[in-house]
Structures are given as C-alpha cells and as structure tokens.
Amino acid sequence: MSQFEALFRPLQINQLTIRNRVVSTAHAEVYATDGGMTTDRYVKYYEEKAKGGCGLCICGGSSVVSIDSPQSWWSSVNLSTDRIIPHFQNLADAVHKHGGKIMIQITHMGRRSRWDGENWPNLLSPSGIREPVHRATCKTIEEEEIWRVIGDFAQAARRAKEGGLDGVELSAVHQHLIDQFWSPRVNRRTDEWGGTFENRMRFGMEVLKAVRQEVGRDFAVGLRICGDEFHPDGLNHDDMKQIAKYYNDTGLLDFFGVVGSGCDTHNTLANVIPNMSFPPEPFLHLAAGIKEVVDVPVIHAQNIKDPNQAERILQEGYVDFVGMTRAHIADPHLIAKIKMNQVDQIRQCVGANYCIDRQYQGLDVLCIQNAATSREHLGLPHIIEKTEGPVRKVLVIGGGPGGMEAARVAAERGHNVTLVEKAGELGGQITLAARAPQRDQIAGITRWYALELDRLGVDLRFNTAADASVVRDFQPDICILATGGIPFMEQNPEWGHDDGLVVSSWDILSGQVEPGKNVLVYDTICEFSGMSAADYLASKGAQVELVTDDIKPGVGIGGTTFPTYYRSLYEHEVIMSSDLILEKVYAEGDKKIAVLENEYTGSREERVVDQVVIENGTRPNEELYYALKSESINKGQIDVEALYACQAQPVLKEADSGMILWRLGDCVSQRNTHAAIYDALRLCKDL
Amino acid sequence: MLPEWLLPALVITALGLFAIGALRRILLWRAGRPEPVSLIAGLMAMPRRYLVDLHHVVARDKVMSNTHVATAGGFVLSMLLIIPVHVFGLDSRWLTIPLLAATVIMFTGAVFVYRRRRNPPARLSKGPWMRLPKSLLTFSVSFFLLTLLASDLLPENFGHWVLTGVLLIGVTLGLAELLFGMGWGGPMKHAFAGALHLAFHRRPERFGGGRSTGLKPVDLDGMLGVAKPSDFKWNQLLGFDACVQCGRCEAVCPAFAAGQPLNPKKLIQDMVVGLAGGSDAHYAGSPYPGRDVGQAQGNPHQPIVDGLVSAETLWSCTTCRACVEECPMMIEHVDAIVDMRRHLTLERGETPNKGAEVLDNLIATDNPGGYEPNSRMNWAADLALPLMADKQEAEVLFWVSDGCFDMRSQRILRAFVKILKAANVDFAVLGNEECDSGDVARRLGDDATFQTLARHNIATLSKYRFTRIVTTDPHAFHVLKNEYGDFGGHYDVMHHSTFINELVEQGRINLDRFKGGTVTYHDPCYLGRYNGEYESPRALLAALGIQVSEMERSGYRSRCCGGGGGAPITDIPGEHRIADMRVDDARKVEAETIAVACQQCTAMLEGVVEPRPEIRDLAELVADGLVVDATPASTATAGPSLAEEVH
C-alpha cells in the first residue's frame, strides 16, 4: 500500500503539531444557531472530521467580529460577544478528543454582505462602492469605526483563545474588509488608509498587531489571502506576493491560506470554489507563488479531492498543507480511509457544489451525495453498523441515487439485498446528467456506489424491468421502490409531444435523438437539466436558443455553477431568452414552428427551428407502487414523524407477516439527488 | 562346524573397521573451524540428552518413537552383550538370556521399521535407507539364533553347521550395516554422529528444557560467514552428519511447500556431501523444488554456493525454525543458512533483489524502508506520547519498531497505545532515538549493520531507566531479548501479547466480549518457536470470550506467514506464496478472523487476495473490546482521554 508519506508528515504551526497535511479550510457552514453560536450540530459536524483523522479544521468561514457585520441571514458564527466562549469550549473539546486541531476564521465582511436584516446596519467599506454579488450598498468607513473594528478583531481573537480553539485565521480574501482596503479597485481613499501601498496595507496591519497583542506570541494566527483577484483593476499575483511578503516580514503570522481568484463578481466567485468544470487544483500555481515569498506554512484548497493528488502536491512541495474541504464534506472519514487502505471506499467529492450553492442562498451546507454530513447530531451515521435484529430480504427497484443509497445502507446493515435496474448500468438520472459537457464528473456519485455495492455483495440485476409479478415472486421482506420519473411532456398537449413534434432533454442527453441544427430548448425548470441540454446541443454544433418562462435561464442553479454554464453557453453563442411561455408547436414542412408568448405582455412570437427540446421536469413512475400498495402490510406508507426524526419506521417492529413497501426519490415527486439519498439513508439506517 | 574363531573375528573386524571409519569421520569434522567444547561434560550429558531431550522431539510421533527405542535400544544392548558372549566366549545364562532378549527387542523394532519402509511417506529418503530395515532384521535374527545355538539352552547338536554358516552370513551382513556402515557413512552413521552431536552440540542450552534461538555473535574482524564446508565450526559439520533423512524438516518447511528451491533435508545432505567430498548422486530424497538431483558437487575446501547449493536455496529460507523444531537430531539448519548468507552478503555483496537496497537503507537511515529517521513519530503526532528523553524513567519502555513507518502497522501501534493509556501504564517511547533492531540485517547476513544498530540502540537504552521493554514486534522482541545480550544489552523484554495478558490478569483493563465470528490464531515464528510464547495470546483471546478454532498447524508447529528472515525482500520465486497457504490453513477451519501478534504477519497475510478472513492483531482486538470506565469522576485523573478513532 502506498504510504502517503508526505500527507502524513506532521508539521508545526506555531506551537501546534498538526498530525497530517490535510486541512478542512474555512467555509461558511450556515449551522450556527442561537444568534451565531456553535451549538450541537456545528460541534458534531467538526467532531466527525476530527474523528475521521483530519489534521486541522479551520471552521467558521467569514465568522464575524463586529456587530455591524451581519451573520444571521446565513447563520454564521458570531464572535462579537463573550457568549460564544463556552460554545467554543465544547467545539474545541470535541475536536481535541480525537487528536485534531481547530481554528476559526474571523473577519469583518465590510460591504460584502446584506444589510436588510438583523440590526439593519449600514455596511462599512473603504470607499462606499457597491458590491454586486450581494447587491450591497454601503457607507464609507470613518476613522473611529476603523479603530473600533480593529479592536473587535482583537476581542474576537481573545474569545477564540479563551474558548480553547487552537488559532484564528484572519480573512483577507473574498473581498472582506481587510482586502477591501488592499484593493485599489474598491479603496479610493486619500487619507492614511488608502492610496499608497503602505496606506492600503495599514488596516490589515493594525488588525494583525492588535490581535497579536491580545493573544500573545504562542497562539496561532494566520491570514487567508487570494492569489490574484483576476480583475484588470484589482490586485494581480505580483501584488499579492508583495502583500504576502509585507505581512510575513512582520513575523507576526504563523501561516497563510491562499485562494486563487477574487470573488466580488458572479464570474470570479465561481473560481473560488471550482466546480466540476474546472481541472484539478486550478490555482495551485498562485499558492505556490505565495509560498515562494513567505517563511511560514502555506495552506491551499481548491479542487483537491483525491489523496494521490494531495500527496503529489505535497511531495513536490508546492504548498505545505492541502485544503480538502469539500472532500471532507463528501467524506469526513477521508483520512481514516487512506490509513485503512480503503482509498477505494472514499466517497469522493464530485464538485457538484450543492454545498456551497446552498450556502450562497443562506441555506445550511449539505452534500449532494452524503446525507449524513452535518446531520451527525440527528444520529445519521457515516459508518453504518450491522443490525442485531433479523436479517431481511430487501428488494430495491431502481438503480438511481435513491435506490443505490437504499441498497448500500441495507447491505451495510447486513441484509440480503437485491437491486433490480431496468437499464444496463447504475446511475439513473445521474447517468444522463453526466453526458453534458463539463458535467461528466457527476458520474463519480455512481462510481462510488458501484464500488460499494460490489464490495457489499449486493445482487445487482441489470436490464430487468420489474413489474408486480417479479416482486411477488421474489417475496421480499422489504420492497423499496426508487423507480424515478419520466419527462413530463404532456402538461401542454399543444406542444405536440404525442405527434412527435418535440423531444425531451433526456432524449437529447441520452443520445437517443440526434441534435438538430437549429434548436429551441424550452426550460421551465431552470436548473441543471435544461442548461445541460442546451450546452450539449451547442457543443455538438447546434445553433441554440434557450427559452424559459422563468426570470432567467438557470435561475435555480447556485452562484458557483450558473457562471460556468454561462461561460460555455455564451461562448457557443447560445441565445438566452426569458419570460416566454411555449404555447404551441406545429410543423411546417420539415420545420417546427414554436409559438412563444410573453408572460407579461401576452404578445406572441414564433421561431422556425428544426428541433424543439423540452425540459419540464418529471412525473413519477408510480404504476408499480400502486400495483403493490394494497398487498403491503404498511400500504406503502412511510411514517413521516419517524422519518423526519431519523428514527426507525414503526412497521419494522411489527410481527413480520408480509411485505413492507416504501417508495422514495422521484417516483414520489420530483426533487433532487440529495433528497432521494437523504430519504434512503434515514429510512434504511435502522433496518 | 565352522571354526570357533570366526564369529569373534567377524565382530572384532567389524568393530575395528567401525573404529577406523569413525576416526576418519572425526577427522572430516575436525576440518571445520575450532569451537571449544567440554569433552567430558558433553559425553557425560549425552545419554540424558538422548533419552530425554531428543526423545521429547521423537516422541511427537509415538509409533516411531517406540520403534526407535526398541531398535536402537535393542541394538546397543545387543552389541554390549555380543562382545563378552561372542568375542570373549563367556558362556553364562546371565549374558545369553539378556542378549537373546535384546535381539528380540531389536527385532520387534526392526519389524516396525520394515513396515514403515514398505510404503514410506515422501519426506523419507529412500536409497540405502530402504535397505536398513532388512539389515536390522538380519542382524537381530542372526544374532538371536547364533546366540541360541551357541548357548546351552538347546539340546546338544541341535544346530547344524549349514544353518550356522547361513547365520554367519547374516551376522556379517548385519555387522556390515550396523558397525562398518556406522563408521563409513551408511545409514547407521546417524547413531554415531548423532550421539556425538548431542554431546558437543553448539547450543547446549537447548537441552533440559532450555531454549536457544539467538544467533551466535560474529567477530567482525574474523572470517565473515561460511564460504566452504570447512568454514563451518567443526561441531556444525558433526551436526550435519547426524541427519537421519527422516524429512520431518522437509514436511514442515514453508519454502519447500511453496515450491521455492529449498529443502532443509537436502541442504543438510549437501553439507554432508561437502564435508566428505563427492556429489549428491546417491541422494535418494526429495530434491529442491524445481532443481534436479545429481548436480551438486563439493569438498570441504570448495565454495558451497554454485557448487553444492544455489544462492536461491539459501535466500528462500524464512528462518522460521520449523525445521529445527521438528528435527529429531536437533540439527541447526537456520544457523547454517545464515552463516552462508553472511558470506554472500558481507564478502561477496550478493544479497539478491531488494536485499542490497534494504541494507543500504538500514545503513543510511536506520530503517529498512529508507524513511527519514526523524519521522519515526509521525504516526503518533496526535497521541502526545511521552518521550524517554523527557521522562528519563518509566515503568515500560514501549519499543515501537519500524512498524511506525507502515500505515497498517500504525493501527496496531495506536491500538496498543490505547490499551497502555486505558491501563494507566507508566510508559514512554524513544521516539526518533530508536533505530531498527537489526533483525532483518542480521538474517540477511549483514552482521556488521546488525552490530552497528544493536550497539547504537544499547547505548540509547543505557541512558534511561525502565523496568521492562514491551514491543508489538516479535522480531524486535527476539533480537532485544536474545541477541543484544552478547553486546552488553540485558533487558527484561516482553511481547505485547504477554504484557496485555498481564494487564488483564491484574484487572488493569476490562474487556467486553468479542462480537465477531470464528477466530483462529496464527503463532508468529519469532514469538512462538523462537521464544516459546504460545499461551498468553490464547489466554488473551479467551479473555475476549473467543474460543480459538485452532489450525492444524499451530503452536510450535505453526506455519510461517512467509515474512521472516528477509524472505519477502530477497523474494525467491516459487510456485505458491507461503502467505496464501497459511490463509488456506485458516480457511480450512472456517475462520472469519485471523488473530495475529506480529505486524510482519499482518502484512503478509493481508497481502493475500480477498475474499479471505480479516487479519487483526491482538492489540486491535483488545482495543476494540476495551471497556472504558465512563464515570465522570475518573476523567479528571485519567490523564489524556482516549481518542475514539475510526482508524
């Protein structure tokens, strides 16, 4: 077995020995409750990473130090009050118990926030320039406020230290207040806080000095910076090297975190948390450039997901620590599995960015594929123990995400599991999704399940369409239907689906229907599927117009992913049209005429194309469910109280005399991959 | 009637020829290098060594043991009585009746020898050995009848000279085999050489229930290893000559079973060829797998390798000592092999495959993998282990061993630390001050590197005070316990299985019942055969509520995992892998878990393709079963809390 020598070489940060070179870098969790406190869910989330072997966790991305840097709308950690200290003690104990270390990122976000809530503050910024991503208008900070915020930083650091955390990371990245002062793009001041290099550096320097003064020399203090803002009027890589060296030379810092790219526009934001369309470690060179000029360890995260990749980066000395943050969200036991020689069992992040895209909507961070992450406090397990109860015969119909997770969990519990899939492979809609350009890596979800189901000895029966008689003959104790859905093409009979006038996005992505030359894609859903279909068609050379009745194409896709679709669609000259309802499609010769009606004016326009592709979501495949429902002892019902409480279904305790029937995923109603996996996990974990 | 002098003459001639042959044989042995022995004490001790120690080994096969007692005892007694009765013509019933009885006993034994030879197992050599039962029968029958005829027990003139003549032919044949053959290299040589081998054995500590398994210290300024037969100590040559070719060694040798070119019996016989000169053309046993018989030629002063044996034969050995353990003549095969390896490594620089690299690594980095010497504690970066350098004094010095560099072994080490902490043991480690124990270097023949490492470690250990050393590595355990003494390092060394068992017995840790399926236990060679520890591991498993499903080959007969003696490093190809065969042993008892007590065994057995039983070290099983007192009052005093880990 490979020894991952570089990965497991401990390194000192100030007085701390970090047991390996893997860091869960700071990200906003959106779990802090009770006014920004790190309560049970938060603690358990980090404890799991420590238990799994992570060397260092830096928690609380963008945790605020001041009362006028809002935290409530995205449940960030609030270090502006001593009330946080006992909560930190719980957090520190939980991580230290497992040999891990934990620091917190502290910041004042300046203009990069929302003012319309909580204390309704005037947002602070060096020069009052509006921030576009949050549509945040702001005031110009005054000298008195500057000194107050510097003091707030010091007090926040004190609270972290008194709470037993191992260090603080000052955020000067993502255009927070410190790097707002740095960047001439937004710092237009002419006083001693702006203009010259030293003046622009002053605020951050005063923060650093104040923090160091407060916590003393032995407490770890680091600085997270970007490697290049990627704006012509912003800080470039050479500027960042100069800044890094300037702060490094004070001798007050113990480490640097480096993120490639600034993020105060939608487009640059997408670089910061590179989704699956990016190559591995796209900005490593920027971090390596910073490492050239500093004397303390450099941490770098961004698309480092694979242990071999991490080992290579460390082995070659580009940086000192690799951030594997999303990798830990997907599998907090990543390190343990490396050590157990179970690298194949690591649930690898696929870069779907479900986590971060939720965060940017102010929703709690969740993993598209691992429903146990951040639900440890509810008792959802990352390691599933074998049942001590009866071993059951479990039949799962459907090999999409819900079916695969149900089969996996049931098999981990020790049951005899058979999975029947109509297609010749696992994956369900993931297989379709992976056919789009830049989206192939989503198939990683399926690949992991395929390996796990094989390891667990699940009996997989492909190319088998299950009907009621198949289920009856099988005589399962439990039958789980995860039969998914089919494209909902009949909603408007005028689309002429029955007459073959339109095709579905599935028809296109699956390759069953050849792309036309001049294509109209009508997308009512505005998530991945329609964008993917358009991108796929364009990549095959089609001229595409992507039409939606919603406010903009892809509006349902989160902030780190719609930009990468847009990059591709604009590059392929795809026309994006909003607010148009597809009323009717008719044929004229070998052409199709699409009749579009403006939602707001009612005016109609027509498009002459040779193909109309519709993405209108799915309808559940529920025939089998209704055929079996009456025969099952639970009449197909799931006890939702038990389900939502993550407790065993009461029917499992009843004397077994017949089949239990459940259905989950899109064969109930269309939701998403995470929803199907979550239901499968919480339903099956107590089997 | 035949002349009366004929019989005495025959006996005297036979005795004389035996004496000449014996003298010649002794001279052959004396071609070896000197080794001081105590002549008188050795000879005095010999009968007891034969009757007790040797028969302790032989008695593992009850039928064969009784057969040998009858045959050999009958023969020795017969010979003692033949001389007065037939040479000096003393005619007393007090002599003739015991002589008759002795020949009857010998005859009875010979019948069993005969029966065994009718359908002999593969391990037995054929050739002249097939003749032996007939010779034994002839000798006993002839002397019985002759004695009877010559006695006054029968009516006058009962005998007929023709009968007497036939019997004399029988006597001649019998004497030829049993006396002439004894001196001149026939099968009966074993009785003569064997007796002296017992008297002048190189490891007299083995007798009387003792144990002697550490390699003998090497004078690095002297001759480095054995190049030619005469480079062996004289009593090693004597030991080779004691071989009875019973093939018990062959039957238990893991390398032989794996089809690697090693057969311990053939090796010893080739050494016999070497000491006497000639070829192996007359060898009538199993060959080295994959090699033809008849190619080996040698004499006392001709290099052994590539004359008598190939280097591959020597490098196939795992040093598991199964052959030594089984040998009824108490021959020391492993010593001989390592002696010859030492020559190849130190004089010729011919350690094969990864061997040279491993030795280079040991020289440069103090560990066989070539890892940074200052990274020995990386595995425990989050465990805050107390260092000897800080503490100076501890009850237990935990010898970590090179498992610290291996991720799999680290799990064993971490499990053991968990146990130490749970039991509140006052312990410390050497950290980066520790070096490889030298085990591998020594088995690969590099005594220079071994001594460097040993002296370094001894110097380090001498800086600190501790009651005992405990290690999870049976190889380090063996070397520290049995081989450092020659260089001034005398310690109370304990294997973790023994130590943990003590903790359990003292009630310092409490264990839950093991929740798993069938468990078998694999005895590591360096713990079991080398150090006699068979019981503690089993007691520990019993404490976990495990009833061990013993493999057919367990305890002193445990089959090696294939990982000892640097064998995985020199990596001589065979037809099978030893580890595969060992896992098959476990499969035969339907084990779901193989409990092991050695990280090398763990590595070897886990290298077997799945599906196979799970491999768990005792420390891991115990750590999983630890019942940690959860009362809040104790947490304040319990010191560092136990990390729950998934790894």
TrEMBL record, chain A:
The keyword Flavoprotein applies. Pfam families: FAD_oxidored (PF12831), Oxidored_FMN (PF00724). Gene3D superfamilies: Aldolase class I, FAD/NAD(P)-binding domain, NAD(P)-binding Rossmann-like Domain. CDD domains: OYE_like_3_FMN. Keywords: Flavoprotein, Oxidoreductase. InterPro entries: Aldolase_TIM, FAD/NAD-bd_sf, NADH_flavin_oxidoreductase, OxRdtase_FMN_N. This is Dimethylglycine demethylation protein DgcA. It comes from Marinobacter halodurans.
From TrEMBL, chain B:
The keyword Cell wall biogenesis/degradation does not apply. Residues 234-264 form the 4Fe-4S ferredoxin-type domain. The chain crosses the membrane at residues 6-23, 69-88, 94-114, 135-154, 160-180. Pfam families: CCG (PF02754), DUF3483 (PF11982), Fer4_10 (PF13237). Keywords: 4Fe-4S, Iron, Iron-sulfur, Membrane, Metal-binding, Oxidoreductase, Transmembrane, Transmembrane helix. This is DUF3483 domain-containing protein. It comes from Marinobacter halodurans.
